[in-house]
Amino acid sequence: MFIFFVHGGPGLNSTPELTLLKNRFKAQGCEFTGWNEPSEFRDSEFTDYSLKNSINSLRMALEKAYLSYPKMVIVAHSFGAYLLDQVIESLSFRPEFLFLISPVADLNVLDRRIIEAGSFFSKDPLTKTKLDLYLSDFRDEVGLSDERLEVLGTAVAIPGLNNAYWGRGEFTDAYLNLFSGINSFNMNSFIAIRKTCQNMRMNTNHGIKTIALFGSKDRITPLEDWNLCGPKLPNLILSLVDGVGHYAHIESEILLKLIPDILEKPVKNLKENAYV
Q1: C-alpha 91: how far from chain center
Q2: CB distance 210 to 98 below 8 Å
Q3: How many other β-carbons are positioned within 10 Å of the β-carbon of residue 118?
Q4: Radius of gyration of the chain from Cα atoms?
Q5: Bridge-partner residues for 3, per DSSP?
Q6: Comma-separated ranges of CATH 3.40.50.1820 domains in the chain
Q7: Of 86, 84, 89, which Cα lies nearest the Cα of 73?
Q8: Arithmetic mean of pLDDT, 113-139
């Protein structure tokens, strides 16, 4: 079995995440690779940050992997699911299954969740007031305005915001320690990609059998948001992973257990909105 992983972000250095997942799947006899967002992390002369460039890069990586592994399983996390949505119908092949982990249904809703989490975890009254005032007049927008960027920057800088992403506290420090000695986030990439997003929602009606997993403790992309504004795709099953947050694939071994089962059994054996 060959797994192709599309990481979240944008702006995230996925190297630690890919290394951890590769080791897990390798121990189970599975081959694993993943796409890396084009970045100066890997090419010091890289400057072409844009959604279009990321989409083209992901498309080429998927096409290349397909030549060697035509039955590969594609897994996408968070914003990676949004990117995959932009790519899927332009591929020369049709995947049999897609596995989405905490997929982003709507970028405006995602922004609101991050700002809400920042307000919740903030211990500074002035910062909390600033975030709450912005939320009181929150409006959907296309791309990323300078004002939205400033507010998001305030929210993500709040100590303790990581608790909004994780369900099991012991995993937070252990995972973040994997970033020791490397740059974990590229703000230039985040800004450029988000500013060039014109489609703020996932909306592809591709009909591919899709499993979407949501952590029961995820404050960033909870299942309720997908039920509210996610695309109602045919052949889509939504399921909860108990006790984990935004990184269900890191905090649990659900993918190691679920993917082989799904490939051997009909998707209909999974119950909608139920725990797996």
Answers
A1: 20
A2: yes
A3: 27
A4: 18
A5: 32, 73
A6: 2-106+165-275
A7: 84
A8: 95
Amino acid at the residue 200: M
Mean pLDDT (whole number) for 53-74:
92
Q: Tell me: the pLDDT tens digits for 13-40?
A: 788 888 888 888 888 888 888 898 877 6
pLDDT score recorded for residue 186 = 79
Please, are residues 260 and 1 in contact by the beta-carbon 8 Å criterion?
yes
Q: How crowded is the C-beta side of 33, counted as CA atoms within 13 Å?
A: 11
DSSP letter, residue 184: -
According to DSSP H, which parts of 2-139 are helical? Answer: 15-27, 51-68, 79-87, 107-121, 125-136
Q: What are phi and psi of 258, to 5 degrees?
A: -80, -45
The distance from CA 143 to its chain's CA centroid, rounded to whole angstroms, is 18
Phi, psi dihedrals of residue 63, rounded to the nearest 5°: -65, -40
Cα 215 from Cα 247, distance rounded (Å):
7
d(CA 54, CA 112): 24
| pLDDT (0 to 100) of residue 25 | 86
Q: Give 203-221 pLDDT, tens digit per residue.
A: 777 888 889 999 999 999 9
| pLDDT surpassing 90 at residue 175 | no
With 70 as the cut, is the pLDDT of residue 270 above it? no
Give the closest residue to 3 by CA, choosing from 255, 264, 261. 255
Domain 2-106+165-275: CATH class, spelled out: alpha beta
Token duo for residue 69: 């592994």
Indicate the Cα dihedral angle 109, 115, 120, 124, nearest 10°: -170
Please report which confidence band the pLDDT of residue 55 belongs to, taking 50, 70 and 90 as the band edges. very high
d(CA 121, CA 219): 12
